[in-house]
Amino acid sequence: MKVVQFTIPVSRESTIVVQEEKLPHYYPHLHRHREVQIEWVVEGSGILVAGNYMQRFESGDIYIIGANQSHIFKNDESYFNPDEPRQIHSVSIFFDPNYLSQNILSLPEMANIRKFVHGVHNGFQIPEEAREAVQKIISEIIHHKESQRVAAFIKLLYQFSTTRDLKPLATSNSEQVISEVEGIRMDRIFQYLVTNYKRHISLAEISEIANLTPQAFCRYFKKHTDKTFVSFLNEVRINEACKIILSGKFDSFSDICYQTGFDHVTNFNRVFKKTTGMSPGEYQKGFRDI
Q1: 46, 75, 32, 68: which is closest to 239 by C-alpha?
Q2: 247-257 pLDDT per residue, tens
Q3: What is the 8-class DSSP label of residue 199?
Q4: CA atoms lying within 13 Å on the CB side of residue 181
Q5: Residue 66 gets which letter from DSSP?
Q6: Are the C-beta atoms of residues 177 and 54 closer than 8 Å to each other?
Q7: Dist. CA 163–CA 126, nearest whole Å
Q8: Its pTM surpasses 0.85
Q9: Tens of pLDDT along 81-112?
Q10: What are φ and ψ of residue 222, in 5° steps?
């Protein structure tokens, strides 16, 4: 059996590590690393879980993942279907915030950038209106080497520090103290939920997967996600429902309801509006009007 690591080591050959990859899919397990990660999803789609944050990601999205923040870019099911070969294209930039703060960012002129780097614990999503400028600088980083690469990287950090309306990801620091063993257990829980969300999953069933009693599981899950098991599962289902609506490949909203694991259309509509702030029909209309 392949060993699943929760803490992934990143090469320390330089101040920043740049990886441009084209793969069948993202690494499919919850994990963390001590470096901050800047992630440009050039091509790909799925669900991003970062701490207690969960939302669909699409091509063009750019995220900043905090140091030691557990996360997973979980691609859609179609990426794992051998009959439908697809690939993701990503650019990842890793840096150690402590090392950077003690060296380059220790200069007086770097005070604002240093303040920004110290505040990325919970991660951010770059707003759509800032993407083009950020993508241009990341492209410079890819093509430059040595000192020119570092200079372009500082330019990128400055761009982040002056960008308005950065969207925070997680809302709590509590999950960052998670141990290696607990991280692997949380990955096991998450993998089970995203694999089986289309059917009813009882509390007893998921508790057994976690090797906990139902009462202990509820406390454990709430502690590590700031969400109840039911609310987390509903978010997985609604994210999938949003994907289906955007694809346009459905006959009715009731079909989507049952495809995503809900038992009743009324409950589906209620949870959808609570999660997205819109009814399924309003959500569909909003994207048609874009």
Answers
A1: 46
A2: 888 999 999 99
A3: S
A4: 2
A5: P
A6: no
A7: 8
A8: yes
A9: 888 889 999 999 999 999 898 889 999 999 99
A10: -65, -40
